[in-house]
What we know:
Strands 1, 2, 3, 4, 7 and 8 form a six-stranded antiparallel β-sheet that branches. Strands 11, 13, 14, 17, 19 and 20 form a six-stranded mixed β-sheet that branches. Strands 6-5-9-10 form a four-stranded antiparallel β-sheet, with no helix packed on it. It is built from no helices and 20 strands. The two termini are 38 Å apart. By secondary structure, the chain is mainly beta. The protein is 0% helix and 43% strand. Residues 1-25 are annotated as: Disordered.
Amino acid sequence: MDVDRGRDQQPNGSQQPHGEGNDRPFLYIHSYPPPVLPHAEEDIGERPVPGSVCWYLCSGIQPLTRFEPGQDLTVQVSVGNWQGGNSASLAYVGVWWSKPVSGPVIPDASKFIGFSPVEVPPHGGRAETSPVTARIGASAGNHICLLAKVWHPLDNVAAGGLADPVNDRHWAQHNLTAMPASPPQPFAFLATNPADQEVTYQIDVRPMPRELWGNLPTDDRLRPTRASAWLSLTSTAGGEEVQGQDAVTHTVTLGPREQREMELLVVVTDEVGSGSFVPFQIAQYRDERPVGGIAVLLHGS
């Protein structure tokens, strides 16, 4: 367990970013950096995150092993704390997995990976949880999403089990899948409505905006690139299909607590080299506000 003992007092005194010295815990899943992003300074728990930060690719959720269906998966979580005072706070952290979802998630107890308490220093301190491990069943499929929550009895956490990584600092998600660009493979995911009433959403698929590329895991051997693609988005329940070049948007009305199966096919029409991948983004919106998303990376062979 790694601990950063916190920041020194700010030059203009001991003002905290939140609560002006309030000594109650102010906990959050650390979303950035890393990576180091333009126009995004240190993460102090403000949500929604800045525009250059990808809300569905939280870097504070760190898979330590490669996901393989039917095998153990180990995950570690980075937590921040911007409380005042001099005492560290004991943060409680839980981690879940789910099938790929473009919208909000209600954590499923049967998909719980693990729980790890960790002491987090005040004044912008950071700490890493101990690794948590669980066996992910073979029936999970080839792609999963990760979800994490941090809480403390004295920190304000919204009531209910709804995860809101976009607007609530206590929640975070890491939703990324990688597939070969050729031959094209369908990608199945769930459009979700956690509300107790019918809600209309927009499912939008397009190339990931270039300003978000800094959020992607890369190295010197593999770099993001642009490429044209023909897209097909299908609702497997009703059979509705939308098609388009480079971008499609589908409006879907979901019943209370409905999870609707969707299938995306991306046919890349440009050549993708062996050292490159093409990043696409599936984003779900309600009244033009993002509620979830998935990064889809199509890599060259």
